[in-house]
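hey so u asked for the seq, here:
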Amino acid sequence: MKNIKYYLLGGVITAFSLGLTSCELESEIYDSINGGIFPTTESDAEALVTGNAYSVFMNNGYDGMFNIATGVLLVSDLMSDYGECTWRGWEPILYNRWSVGNSYNDNHWRWAKYMGKITMTIDRIEKMDLSDDVKNKYLAELHCARGWLAFSMWDLYGPIPIADIETLKKPLEEQIIPRLSEEEMKNFIVTELTAAASVLPYSYAKESSEYGRFTKGLCNMVLLKFYMQTQQWAKAEELGRELTKAEYGYKLEPNYASIFKLANEKNAETIWAVNCLRGTQEHKWHPHVLPNDFPGSETLTKWNGYKISWDFFDTFEPGDKRLETIIYAYTGTDGTTHSEVNDKVSSDKLLYYGAIPCKYDCYDFVGTQGENSETDYIIYRYADAVTLYAEAMVRNQNMITDEALYWLNEIRKRAGLSEYQRSDFSNTRDFLDKLLLERGHELFFEGCRRQDLIRDGSYVDAIKHKCQVVGQTTLVNKNYERIPLPQSVINEGKGQIEQNPGY
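ran it, structure tokens below
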């Protein structure tokens, strides 16, 4: 039997077969890597970075921060004003009944552990004998990962504990690391993403073998989101303008539905997506949204889960082409006609809670087999960037600029809707209201709505309205813009880690 040694790599296990010996299995656990074995080469460095910088930003079955079942983008939208779900038991998410110890909010904390892995990897790459270009590129990817993960955790929980490298090198010493202050956390996010953006390329061509790795465009998109959420309008406007430069190569696709088609993967509107491939990385979009009697999908797994509430669906204008990616009426395989009118009458109807956000490969399902889809899962796209840019301009300048109106109308024109004229807005607040709704229609189930409502100051009222419409109770107040830390984190903190206010 092979004699196998396991090397602990900041939480990542690498196994090496060291030749046939006896029939005895031996294991040795080390608290550090033997630098003479791994990592030493450029390919080692790439494996190390890929395993530690990218593994958290996955959507592979139920793994990764963007998975369809418990991913941060998906759950953020369920927490918004239009997120609904047929599965009862999801009420804490849907109606903001957060409580300490609830598994729904505890689940997201697991991504925080990757922060230490990334920091340890930065230390190892810095010590490797690599060319400056290669080393700087890998370090930039790691800093991008650390900044992006920090932003994602801050968005949900607020500041988190972040261990420095010296603390991480002493795993046997019991050390309690308090949460960063709000200012320290914000500075950390900006410093990491800015450093990465200064090194990484603007973007990668879809033909490039590097496509899917982190880029300057991704760093600046996350920074744009951060500046918007912290209401730093001037910086957000500057970054929004930056992302429209030709060097990035981004543009709006002419057809909305095609953005999410397998045949049109890696399109110019995509800023960053989880690259999926059959047998390698696949996501579970369709089983989470399709009703079990939907025709033309007999070979697919269907659980009839997530919905767009009928209350929000009814805000779409007639003729909006984005409705082509929403299933709001159909005749089931048993001949039953499903629609808002027919299904809202009883909770046992398949569309009682809302319309189906089909989005990916809608109606043809070519990227999905069984319950797994190989169609790239888009995290950020250009339409998100330019509408944030438009909002930042109006908020920063306190006026409706020509460029802000231009970008709002570009989104509407693609959707087949009439363009707005200046006379259509009574004031800047009216423009922002219309833009907020447009972003909801454009970016449904792309993880934007909760942030949009919080930034706008309308989150609490929107959730109260949602709950009133469906006859549900809610605990929502200003504190519920963030979710509580797991009780285990508070206990282990021994008084040095405080719970979020209101819990």
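The longest strand covers residues 12-20. Residues 1-38 form one domain.
lmk if thats what u needed
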